[in-house]
Task: inverse folding
């Protein structure tokens, strides 16, 4: 009865809705900002605001199950002696052992390898399990340099210099004390149980000119074999892309603000960076301006969920995409089967974002041996492989509908926007018009 | 037998490739590198107990990620000398630019002259001995290992320090957040004495040094420490 009265007669403030009131009260109780995992939760202009113009009278589609639509991608063709050959244009983003459990990392390697793609280490170094289960492994060079060593550098298939990530461009890594187990502490040369806050800047270079020399060092150490990626959080993407090219990147990874994290301040996740949609277009513009499009490959990440997102990112000019949160969901994160256990933690399936707490009932984002043991890496790997296959099939479906024999043949002319914001950000016309806001007149 | 590479006639990649040809072996051969003339990335990624002597000044990241080798630079070094070194010895007879020994996990870095800012930044087990002075923010976020400064230290020494030990003989402009002076016990005198001996410093007594380490107050977030974050 009371609930009915509340719904019918009481008015919630648009300025102070219930979650905002809860945030203010939480802050007043604890004296510390909210730290959480997952990615941005606010509504943002996204690939959902674009649609494909399938073939019709003026375009010729490919037969759905008869005519080949290739999905292979080669990364690192600029300088590396051994570029990475992937069967699908979808890679697994960097997620650390520490943020994730050992079995979860193993599952990522198993799933990615099964479908011929790569996975990526994270802030904490490379584990033998991860290397063992990943056919193609990208080794991240982060500001903290936890676990960084020349042996693992040489074992890697590519090196990713992480300048920033979409969830927190300008911020450093964070792993709270409850997840600094004995093994994690040893890998990072830190005392057990402390809050680990990694630096936001690299310790031995300060700008693109220095970075060019740093990248050259990495190439020298690995005898110029490995592709070197530069990963940036999406902010001043046009200029960052140009500077990354100048610094000598083989591959640029642009992570939009929807990109996930294991632990970051909520205010950072929701209020810093630009969405993935404009970031792709800015990066491609910069590459084209330098005549480097397709010569330096572009990987885009941040909120990629479906084959539609993959196809739209590729149509705007990306060479591949990367997934993080979606991969964890495929492994079982936020699954309804754990709802009862999520509720004991004060949350529910579909809402869980406390990756920083280490109490994940699925055994994915935890360092508790007991919880991690609940996660089956073989089943998890299988689920991820299935999901990656579906993403690929969906991408091919859309590419064939546009008459493309390779997913890279999708282009911006295959797209229109449903909103003015998306039209302006992606620089494709508003549906039913020739209008691209900021480019021409209606 | 002494192998000589003249960088006037050979490039850095050729040099590094030759040094890498014996990576993973116990090769102890001696190498002399002439005319480095400030070139970057000289002798990086060595993984063998080679003895390498570089005659002249070098640029960035000399002896980066060194394992096992004994590298001597007869001159000054640019930024990031011996960055991420794992083991071995790197000896600079001149002075070093920024980030000397950054993130290094092991081995011994000896700098006969001064080191600029951020010496030993984020060090993870290396021993660094600077016979002169160091610049600001040295041992920033230093995790483990020992930094011995025979001269003075600049501002914010040991800021956000973890478990590294810092020994300073001269004056300190200021200590960084969570870095405090600690008493020198006999075990510290012993480790300091060994480091001085290993670096060939025989004319300075351990009693002339003071020890600094982490107050460990910032290890876990506490709202009462908010002013220093």
Result:
């Amino acid at each position: 009865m009371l609930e009915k009265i509340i719904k019918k007669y009481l008015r919630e403030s648009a300025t102070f809705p219930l979650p905002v009131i809860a945030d203010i009260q939480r802050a007043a109780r604890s004296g510390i900002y909210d730290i959480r995992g997952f990615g941005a939760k606010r509504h943002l202009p996204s690939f959902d605001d674009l649609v494909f113009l399938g073939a019709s009278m003026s375009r010729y589609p490919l037969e759905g199950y008869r005519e080949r639509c290739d999905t292979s991608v080669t990364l690192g063709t600029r300088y590396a002696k051994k570029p990475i050959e992937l069967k699908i244009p979808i890679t697994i983003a960097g997620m650390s052992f520490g943020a994730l459990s050992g079995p979860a990392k193993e599952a990522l390697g198993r799933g990615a390898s099964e479908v011929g793609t790569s996975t990526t280490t994270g802030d904490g170094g490379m584990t033998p399990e991860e290397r063992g289960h990943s056919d193609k492994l990208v080794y991240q060079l982060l500001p903290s340099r936890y676990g960084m060593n020349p042996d693992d550098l040489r074992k890697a298939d590519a090196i990713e210099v992480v300048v920033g990530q979409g969830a927190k461009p300008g911020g450093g890594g964070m792993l709270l004390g409850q997840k600094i187990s004995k093994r994690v502490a040893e890998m990072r040369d830190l005392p057990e149980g402390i809050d680990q806050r990694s630096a936001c800047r690299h310790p031995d270079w300060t700008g693109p000119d220095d970075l060019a020399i740093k990248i050259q060092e990495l190439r020298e150490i690995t005898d110029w074999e490995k592709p070197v990626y530069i990963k940036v959080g999406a902010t001043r993407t046009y200029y960052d892309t140009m500077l990354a090219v100048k610094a000598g990147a083989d591959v640029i990874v642009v992570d939009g603000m929807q990109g996930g994290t294991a632990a970051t301040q909520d205010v950072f996740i929701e209020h810093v960076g630009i969405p993935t949609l404009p970031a792709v277009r800015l990066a491609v513009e910069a590459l084209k301006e330098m005549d480097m499009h397709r010569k330096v490959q572009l990987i885009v990440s941040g909120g990629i969920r479906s084959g539609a997102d993959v196809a739209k990112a590729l149509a705007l000019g990306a060479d591949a995409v990367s997934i993080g949160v979606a991969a964890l969901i495929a492994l079982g994160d936020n699954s309804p089967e754990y709802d009862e256990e999520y509720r004991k933690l004060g949350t529910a399936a579909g809402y869980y974002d406390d990756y920083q707490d280490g109490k994940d009932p699925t055994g994915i984002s935890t360092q508790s041996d007991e919880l991690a043991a609940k996660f089956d890496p073989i089943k998890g790997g299988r689920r991820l492989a299935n999901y990656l296959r579906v993403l690929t099939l969906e991408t091919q479906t859309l590419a064939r509908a546009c008459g493309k024999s390779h997913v890279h043949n999708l282009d911006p002319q295959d797209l229109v926007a449903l909103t003015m914001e998306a039209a302006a950000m992606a620089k494709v016309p508003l549906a039913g018009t020739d209008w691209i806001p900021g480019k021409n007149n209606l | 037998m002494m192998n000589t590479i003249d960088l006037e006639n050979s490039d850095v990649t050729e040099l590094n490739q030759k040094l890498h040809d014996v990576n993973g072996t116990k090769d102890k051969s001696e190498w002399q590198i002439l005319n480095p003339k400030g070139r970057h990335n000289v002798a990086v990624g060595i993984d063998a107990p080679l003895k390498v002597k570089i005659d002249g000044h070098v640029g960035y990241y000399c002896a980066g990620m060194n394992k096992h080798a004994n590298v001597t630079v007869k001159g000054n070094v640019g930024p990031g000398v011996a960055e991420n070194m794992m083991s071995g010895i790197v000896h600079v007879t001149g002075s070093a630019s920024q980030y000397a020994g950054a993130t290094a996990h092991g081995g011994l870095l000896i700098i006969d002259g001064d080191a600029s800012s951020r010496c030993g930044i984020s060090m993870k087990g290396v021993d660094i001995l600077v016979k002169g002075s160091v610049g600001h923010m040295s041992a920033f976020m230093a995790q483990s290992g020992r930094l011995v400064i025979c001269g003075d230290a600049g501002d914010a020494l040991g800021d956000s320090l973890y478990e590294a030990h810092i020994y300073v003989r001269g004056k300190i402009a200021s200590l960084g957040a969570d870095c405090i002076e600690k008493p020198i016990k006999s075990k510290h005198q012993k480790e300091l004495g060994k480091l001085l001996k290993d670096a060939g410093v025989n004319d300075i007594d351990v009693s002339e040094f003071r020890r600094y380490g982490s107050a460990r107050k910032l290890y876990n977030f506490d709202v009462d420490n908010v002013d220093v974050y």
